[in-house]
User: What shape does this take?
Amino acid sequence: MSFSDPSPLSAAPGASVRAVHDEFHGDLLEVSMGPHHPSTHGVFRMMVTLDGETVVKLKPVFGYLHRNHEKIGENTSYLGSMPYTDRLDYLCSMTNNWAYALAVEKLAGQAVPERAEYLRVILAELTRLLNHTCLAGFLLQDCGASGTPLMYAFREREKILDLFESLSGSRMMCNYQRFGGCRVDAPAGWLDAARALTDGYGSFLDEYEALLTGNEILMARTQGIGCLSAKLAVSAGVTGPLLRAAGVAYDLRKVDGYGFYPRFDFRVPLGAHGDTYDRYMVRVLEMRESIRILQQALRDIPAGPIMDPKAKLRGFRPKPGEVYSRIEGPKGEIGFHLISEGGPNPYRYRVRPPSLINLTILEDLCLGHSIADAVVILGSIDIVLGEVDR
Amino acid sequence: MSEPAPSSPPTLTDAERAELRRQGILLTSMEELYNWGRSHSVWPLQFGLACCAIEMIAASMARFDIARFGSEVFRPSPRQADLLIVSGTVTKKMTPQVVRLWNQMPEPKYCIAMGACAISGGPFKQGYNVLKGIDRFIPVDIYIPGCPPRPEALLHGLMQLQEKIRGQKISGPGAPRHLQADTTCEYPVPDFGEHDLVPPQNPAVWQPPVIVRKEGA
Assistant: This one.
């Protein structure tokens, strides 16, 4: 698509729409969607060039939520950064905690007791359920089903948040993992409550799927929309459900086998077309596998300590070194790269955020589709701006 | 208190009015009726910034049900909204847009600073790109502490705002901003300067605290 470079924005402050004239294609319209737009999942901005309703160019604008997470991490003790990781991807604080704890444990060579490893798996899979349920609700919201699907999703989310709250004291910002284990043990009756939730979740999914999966409107809005090829996905570094929806069998729980995941029997669902519908479907199937992992973990969890007795939290100074550690978060590979010079703070603290890297292919997915589909495609990529901008 | 002017009607105390209400006689004033109506239809702007926005959404869902307070109508356009809930970290890059949104809202309008970041920068206060409180640029009515505040806290903040609206006069020197002829709805939108926002705060709504030190201390 060739057209003259957009002219500078008009002099009116806050101008968000302008016409770009091109002698071959007539008038194109440049629309600034965001940073305040109900469908951009936070303060994300897209500069969209439209030919009629069709997207011919899309330029994402980042940084409206850049809150200096990495720089603050370099000036904070290792333990002090743990609560900040909660606020990266604020829907999935438990998996962020785990990824960071894993990186520091690798740096310091710490072991984790068996019960803590089981608790981590349980919490990570509950987080995956929470994230994917909310994603399905928001995706339907983006399709125009205002309210109802999201209400169903948030009803289930509240049940999981109740579990998180009774365990860690906070609904969203759990700050639960520690280097060498977990902060507190599960209170009496917690595991039974988690079992009850896990056993009931399948029937919720059945209900949700009965409403959505075969729904004609959802299929019309998502099938064949925003196709992602396996080649592009791999070369762009896309991970998580997006990559698996494109048909690439790559799940760090299988590839790296971190934690106790090799002990559990679960499958990795794959998509065939890589379109928005596949991305929705892969997440639904992943939730079913998460329920299987949860049932196994809640059955096998042993009694015992939850903290390595040799672990040192205060005045923690790992020996000099460099480490990168990653886990399969609900949105993709979340990794932490730490460089230690032996001091109380990391010399360099870098987050590999799955949302940001998955978002880089947004233009490729949206080109040629209508502006309403661009909203749905953005919803299916599943971004959280806290993690994109950090 | 001075003697009321002979021409002004005798006023009822709240207790007397409540007693009359029990007897089935409803006496009200224009002011009370107007504020009662306004306080139960506060429409927030559908505007999420960061983590707190998720709790704001949770407050509007079935469990917490913000509709009980008449505020379930989240409007996507600032032109239709009465309440700006600043739900999350305001970065310096985002500040001009937030102030612009506030300017686009018609009076009477109210602002809730939800969460530690919107109040003061919160845990990210030391960040070079983080605004240390949205009250530096727009007047805030209610502050809700927490990181993030629970949905119940947001509902409590909303009830406090309703209380505030019910207490507002519709005439006289104590009238709110939108009923005074000489006040403006427009607040200056800051620019991106070389190192910081220009100006870094709006002196009309926020002044740095004056630190008083005793002699020799």
